[in-house]
Design goal:
It comes from Floridaenema aerugineum BLCC-F46. The structure is a single chain. The protein has a domain of about 35 residues. Helices cover about 60% and strands about 0% of the residues. The chain has 2 helices and no strands. α1 crosses α2. The longest helix is centred in the C-terminal third of the chain and has 18 residues.
Length: about 50
């Protein structure tokens, strides 16, 4: 499966929190955002919100 670009607008505070988490986990901002999105989608599937 290929990759695609998604633009997301967040508050400066959210961006800073994401950057701090990415730094702690030694990941890029983009990688960290993708991981968090993946976790959120997995949770939504578990809860039956999406298929």
């Amino acid at each position: 499966m290929g990759k695609t670009t998604v633009t997301v607008f967040v508050s400066e505070e959210m961006k800073e929190g994401l950057k701090k988490l990415a730094d702690v986990e030694q990941r890029s901002l983009s990688q960290m955002a993708a991981i968090l999105l993946q976790q959120g989608l997995a949770k939504a599937k578990e809860e039956g919100k999406i298929q």
